[in-house]
Amino acid sequence: MTDEFVPPRKRTGWRRLLGYNLLTALILAVVGYYVGWIAGHHVTGKSVAYFSDIDQNDISVFLAYILAVIGFLLGLGFGAYPFARVRGYPPSLREKESEGIGRYFSLCTDHKVVGIQYLFGIGVFFFIGGVNAMLIRFELLRPSMQAFPAGQYLTLVGLHGTMMMGIMSSAILGPFANYVVPLMIGARRMAFPRIESLTFWILMAAGTVLATTVFFGGFPTGWTGYQPLNDQANAGMDSYIVFFALVGISMTLLGLNMIATIVTMRAPGLTWSRLPIFCWGVLSTAILNLLAAPVLVAVLGMAMLDRTAQTSFFLPSAGGSPYLYENLFWVFGHPEVYILALPGMGIVLELLPVFARKPLWGYRLAVSGLLGVTLLSWLVWQHHLFVSGINSDLRPFYMLSTELISIPTGFTFLCGLMTLWRGQIRYTVPLLFCLAWFFNFLIGGLSGVFLSDVPSDTTTHGSFFSMAHFHYTIMGGLVFAFFAAIYFWVPKMFGLQLNERLGKIHFWTMFISFNSTFAPLFVIGFLDQPRRAVTYAPSLQFLNDWVSISAFVLGASMLVFVGNLVYSLLFVRLPAPANPWDSRSLEWQLPSPVPVHNFDRIPVIAGDPYDYGSAAPPVAVVPAGGVS
Fold this sequence. Notes:
It is a single chain. Helix content is 64%, strand content 1%. With 628 residues, it is mainly alpha-helical. It folds into 2 domains: 19-92, no CATH class; 103-620, Cytochrome C Oxidase, Chain A (Up-down Bundle). A two-stranded antiparallel ribbon has the order 1-2.
């Protein structure tokens, strides 16, 4: 196969209007939903008789959601390619790669388009989750109920946690790995372009499904969906199950695609010892995606059968075990924590050499740390069950394994700090977010010691202490790294500069308000305020008011970021240089924004991307010129 670029075939106007697009997808989704709803009400059997007694038909809800998602994907064109191949049409690797703004609202096989789709799509659901957080903190301004009854409050908590955990699982791999990894490794596309687009649209369908839970009464379980509450809940629980199942499918396919791309499509000369550290972070996360997410899909499938077909996997009254659900969920759930954390580590280690003007210190040690976290993340899940009846003989092992994972995590800290040591540091906005990552993740790790030891975990497990630890680890790690990546790679994605002053205002407002929000929650947790409870002791009102006001400021900092995006990308539109950071990484050797085909010819890698002490070019690149 030649590596010459062949321009894609242009589509005529009528095909763009009448073909597969978002409008067609939405119409077919509505049709599929009502077909499933009606079909579910015509199913007969013991399950339906039971549902009719309680005025609830979960079969209809599940069928409606499933057929709606299938119709949505068919409307986007995901069924067209296999049918075309069956009818004898030749294979094509490209779909809507040169159709202007319309390609962002349909199936597109350009990995850069998919990355930008992820960036804005995840941003929408991140905003929804953030609004829920503001409503939660508004309710907690008083120790007694004020705006939301207990059931509605639980729905708010569940929506916030589930939306954030599900959607943000792809917050780094979706926008940035899809966009940047093929450029970093010298490839023109991902290994499976249609699967790449499919993962995005499945995730968007999942977020929409979860948002509709409010029409079915919400769900009372929080983001974990614990049994037997799962089986006893109203139809809003069905939205949770379908949402997380779709998220699991998206994560699995995303991980598979990333592994295939990095393993098989590296340019000549890009050996494993020259692979950018961000790609190692992506590869580590993709392995966890591929192995952990199917467990989530399986356990939710079992829960769906318990709710619709009268199976008894998790129902103790019929011989099942809710403890089985906890184990299976956390077999996914704790690797999920590192699915969120590992990409952030990769971003921080990728950006530090650029702004310290030094080689990445301890490259092989950093790789060992990422792979070590990947391995040990499978051996710690039962520390979530210390207060759930776990066999006491198992506790020492899981205490030890949980503590051991701090060793490879410490490798990444050490490599990052030593890279900064005596460097020629430029305090740009991306670097500020990276430095904040160190501070936040360190507090998250130290507070995790209290939850990994049985004696202290028994007093802090169900309190706000646990929630504070979790937010320091995930939001303090993932979200700060997410914004570092945005400020670093947006000039490459759009060819436009973000406003530096607004960026620094965003950073300092977010960093100070984040710590002002979550640090007091450690104290509130030690003072025995339980999480997910709408009322609390009056003596804790001052601390809760402080946290709520700080949370509102944290929310306002996100509006500063949105304002920066709108101001810089829509109004000022200041062109960015091809390489504003003077980075040696391969993606910065290309024009900004990157042409559709990336490279006229596949480059040959000739050096280390972090060798900032050398004047030699890192690659022999054939520039992507005028071919489009």
